[in-house]
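Target chain:
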Amino acid sequence: MGNLGEAVLWPLAGGMPSNWVTKQETRLISPQQREQVESRIRSRLGIAVETLRGLDQRVWWSISRQIYSDVARHGKPDRIDTFNGNYGLNRGLSGACSLLACIAAITQNWLSAGLLVVLTAIYGYRAYRFGVYYGRELYLQFLTTAETSTKATPKRKEQQEKA
């Protein structure tokens, strides 16, 4: 049910938020930030992208996954993963409430069906919001990570004993 809800939600919202940077106009990040993302894709990932505006979604999908991998490699995926987890949770809760609303309607339990429809909408909205947060955070983390990894490497036990 969550997958079905997702298949309905994102086309109505203009596509997945992680793809919004390829639209002509986007409120996900500022125009200056989009230019910085384009520049970083060229310099950091080595992908020759002139502009993100109007880029084919199939091409962009693999580039956005590579952006996430770059952020994870630099030790900064925590906020992104949190938003993605909350998105998945709310998507699932919305789907479950939707299914339960159908069952309640079939059994003519109208009060329960109505309450479950309201919960479906609430969880669906929350899934939408966390999806947007995920998309925004993905690009912000990509822009704020240093060119080289700043993630601390754990010291070996021998090194710790010497210190």
